[in-house]
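As a warm-up, study this chain.
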Amino acid sequence: MEDDRKGRRPEDGISGGEHPDGRAENFRLHIRDDGLLDDGAELSSEEKGDSPGERDVLHSYSSPRTRQALEAEQLRAKKEAERAHRIRSREKGRKNRRLFRVVWVSMVVILGLAVGQYLVSGFGDMLAVNRNKVSVTVEIPKNASTEKIADILYANGVIEKRDFFRLYSKMTKADGSYSQGTFHIDTNLDYEAIINYLQSEANRVDTVKITFQEGLNLRETAELLEKNGVCTAEDVLKAASSKDFENYDLVSAVANDKDRYYLLEGYLFPDTYDFYKNEDPKQALGKMISNCSKKMTQSIREQAQKKGMSADQVLNLASIIQAESADKEDMKKVSSVLQNRLKNGAKTGTLQLGCDSTVYYPYRQKTQVPEKERETYVSRYDTYQITGLPPGPICNPGLDAINAALNPADTDYYYFCHSKDGKAYYAKTAAQHKKNLKKAGLTQ
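Now compare it with the structure written out below.
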């Protein structure tokens, strides 16, 4: 061994002193970066400290060149992975676009077919194609919307496409113009005919015929309208004092409307009328005012003018005649008494007309006055308290009373009274009238 040690050189890769017991001391081992020993031999995996499965793994003792090689390899692998991902994404995108095109085209085709079928069926319904003629009854509520009307028509077989009817109604600006009420309508009408039919009040069948007797006052008229289902009494009374009837010449001529309980009192001519159920009170009252205007003919108005009376004064006087008279024959004599007082009241001590029918107006009698004010109630129309005619008519007179107001009997009477059975008594003086009251059984 001594010879061997003597034959080695320091550059052979091992150097250092020899320990006394024969062991090497202070030796150095030189390993090149390329994994070769100084003599050119390559280190094995075990000599490098790498296990067979860890060649591509960096360690704290890996050389800089190894680190660079591994990092470059990892970068290439990452780029390769990203490239593969982009290729897969592009391929997936192409497949998705193809699928989207197929779905989109399918939806367009399906939608087109659906719209086409909707339009065909809708136009067919609009034109009443293949609809049989059957007469049905439909009831349109007050202030019904087009949607509600379409539902009613559909439920009764008048139309088949509610949404198409609503669209047509809106496009033709028919919304809000339908009449309320009950209609008999055929199921073979097209949309235009249906709309025109439902817009006309003349096609309503829910009518009621009411006869108003001469002498009814406005409150009684309102109650009769409500009883027959035309409109509520409250709505009638409210309308009767409104400004909604100034387009009627008779009403517009009234100058003292603020002094009256009801502006339309005296102008609702007693007659027989046809009304619709749930009719607008303005429309219902308008029929009666229009009739009054017709009954107050030009001849009557000219006759009133010759006597120095307005149409309103004629109706005012006629209303008292109507309320106080027992019959048509009695009317002219009662008229003479009233007009004699109006003309000569100051001379005869009969300035007041003194008619019982005016005492509690607008009520018919004391029992109708609200209980809280019954005992202290004083009417502005009370002819025992005022001089001359009251502010307005006290009821709605008929033609006989109107004619009596214009053509009173020629008498000197200033007083009249009636027995309970309607027998009339007339007098020229207060003394004669006192006797007549006993004859009529009105006093002891």
